[in-house]
Amino acid sequence: MNRRDFLSTSTLATIAATTTGIPASADEHSTTPTIAAQSRTVGAAKVTAISDGYIPLGPELLSGVDADTYKDRLEAAHLNPESHLTGVNAFLVETGDKRILIDAGSGIAMGPTLGNLSVSLPALGIDPASITHLIATHLHPDHVGGVLPEGQNIFSNAELIVSQDDLAFWTNPDMAAAAPDGFKPFFELATNVVNSFEDRIKTVTGEADLGMGLTALPMPGHTPGHMGIMLEDSNEQLLIWGDIIHVAPVQLADPSVTIAFDAEAELAAKTRARVMDMATTDKLLIAGAHMSFPSVGYLEKADTGYRWFDAAYDYGQ
């Protein structure tokens, strides 16, 4: 992808017009946090889905679907098309003596309906300083802003694992300088987050064995280095697929629909189709950053597109 061409696309203009940037202070995050978490086992590993909150996403951010179809699909899913809310979720994997957080929520980066993770972790008895690894599926604000909820890295002992492609893109000062004003905070936040880990950074390229039963799987398009994480333990699997889906009722029915936040829309659609086919063919348990909380379930092919089935609650936890 030609990164400079990307920076001149209408996609960035749309994003700049529909995002509010990074609030000036933590005081702007005034909504009382809702602590929502649900745990399950994958083999001997414990995986906890944690809600960071939600953001409104309307049809104006989607490409490949008209307003009437958007309305029909949300209503068919018993959702209000006038006020659709998309959840933002992170996932804590505890295996052996490791605590691995996959994505970190948004902190104060995207408004008062998000940023619950830094409150939820202590409420669950998890000291952020006890996190041994933070894996960023990508460096968008709703996935790494929670590292710096008040300007300081709360994961003071964690190693950051991130795609080399995402790191190179979001910390490139030339890219940041060329970006529209409303988009510059994305670059600034990503750079600040990365710098806060100092030398505790591991970059990966392509499919990579991360150890701890985890494998990074490249899923480019949403961002240059967007990746999913496969957890395997005792012959059980969980695919944490990051931002493959944003508005489930629409994109499940038609995986070709893209969102303005996709860096390369055509590639994002191809990646989504590939990943969803893999998930159904291999009957994978899936966790999605923007699926409805607790965001863990299965896909099945339907007459048109796919259907989602929530995974049964794990009463053993």
**Spatial strand sequence of the major β-sheet:** 1-2-4-5-6-7-8
Beta-strand percent range: 25-35%
- SS-based class: alpha+beta
Shape: globular
The figure for the number of domains is 1
N-to-C span: 44 Å
| Overall mean confidence score, pLDDT | 90
For this structure, what is the CATH class?
Alpha Beta
The helix fraction, in percent, is 25-40%
Characterize the biggest β-sheet.
Answer: 7 strands, mixed
Report the C-alpha radius of gyration, rounded. Answer: 18 Å
Do you know the CATH architecture?
Answer: 4-Layer Sandwich
Distinct helical segment count: 10
Return residue spans where pLDDT drops below 50 for at least 5 consecutive residues: 1-30
How many beta-strand elements?
Answer: 16
CATH topology: Metallo-beta-lactamase, Chain A
Order of helices and strands: HHEEEHEEHEHEHHHEEEEEHEHEEE
CATH superfamily: Ribonuclease Z/Hydroxyacylglutathione hydrolase-like
